[in-house]
Amino acid sequence: MLVVKNLHASVAGKEILKGIDLRVKPGEVHAIMGPNGSGKSTLASVLAGSEKFTVTQGEVTFLGRDLLTLPIEDRARMGLFLGFQYPVEIPGVTMANFMKIAVNEHRKYRGEEPLTAGEFLRLMREKSAIVELDPKLTSRAVNEGFSGGEKKKNEIFQMAMLQPKLAILDETDSGLDIDALRIVATGVTRLHTADNATVVITHYQRLLDYIVPDYVHVLYKGRIIYSGDKSLALKLEKEGYDWLINDYREEER
Amino acid sequence: MTVDGLITAAAAVPLPSDGRLTGGVYVWNGGDRELTVPEGARASLLLLHAEEHKAEIGIEIGRGAELSVVELFTSAADAVLHLTQDEASLCRMTALVLSSARVHHTIDLVQRDARFDLGGAFVLSGDDRADWKIDVNHRSSDCSSRSVVKGVASGSAYGRFGGLVYVAPDAQRTDSQQTSRNVTIGRDARVETAPQLEIYADDVKCSHGATVGQIDGEAIMYMRQRGLTETQARRLQIEGFVGDAVMHSAVESVAEPLARIVAEKLETI
Questions:
Q1: How far, in Å, CA of A219 to CA of A24, rounded?
Q2: Chain B residues touching residue A115 (CB < 8 angstroms)
Q3: What's the pLDDT tens digit per position in B107-145?
Q4: First and final CA of chain B: distance in angstroms?
Q5: What is the ipTM of this complex?
């Protein structure tokens, strides 16, 4: 589904990603971990198409297409979803209005008719229940005045509305209390099928108690320096990254 | 751009010859006038500048009277509006400048407990030029005023907002708020905003704020990630930005046609 080969990207002349290789197949859950500043969020942004970063080398195919040549919105409509680490507030634009345009743009891309007002309302009600999002929030402005937990739930709500093929969740667990974490993580798990894939970027093992990954990758200084199964996350939780980083330094020498 | 829809939606009637607004919704669309809202009366007024003209309108709002005003500029006009508010009177106003215009609003709160509340916006595109002055004079105690004006300029448009709140020496317990928020789109658009306070009383609550910024790039990226085109995302953001004023129209029956006219103007930015 997603094939990343030797991806290099920089911002303002500074190279952040220094040769990422990653392969994600339908039905898989990948976790990307790593210390602060290792390039995790940059990887997510570059895949989503953020214009802040320049890809200097490498290639990415998504569902057989060259992802890097596509504008942000086409990547989204093809089924790539980014759960933002810091969801953006958009004053004066209601969630309902925003989602209606988004859902119908996705449908148009697939050659489907727009939803009727009734169908759309039903869809919103059904999907907001998945993350126990207060339906009243959908009549409020996008993320404006939402609590930290509501913002993250709202990301997963949007994911549920848009039913992506590949969801990249950038630190969806940061700033959540235990209850919100459980709700958000359970929501993600419920949305998981054999046909879609999830990449979770996280600092903490605790999210992975709910969202059990098939693969865990450690990103360090812009490269994936180690990959393993879910037991790797447990080991990292206990022992930190130092043992890996030291090994990596040895190798570099 | 047609404003007839507003008149129909509000079932507005022409101004009476004696200028006394005793009830219902009136429409003005040109000429100098002196109007009054008699003591205790409740009326609404549409001020429509749909053609190039120069006009001076004076309105006295009597004790305990209420006036709701919607003023709309869709054609280059040079307009002066002077409101004088008596004790415990209320004026709610929505003003939208969607074309080149020179606008001067003066509000005199001359007796205690008068209240003035304005939500406004200017949306300028192409080579529109608009200059909007609002002077709110608190001449008596216990009055309150609030004006929130949003500005959008694109193309090579230029918008200027000048707001002055004056508080007279004996206008104690004045409560006044003035906000001017602006967005420019593109490199050639310009907005200048100059809010001023002149306070001669000591027991007052006055706040003012002014900003000029650009479109929020993060929000555009966010919306595009959900599948909106850049154009859709920009328009939605600007609509949201100016939306407040339209959504809470002082004359409720015209909120919808007003929103349509604003949306039409937004197509041009």
A1: 16
A2: none
A3: 999 999 999 999 999 999 999 999 999 999 999 999 999
A4: 15
A5: 0.94
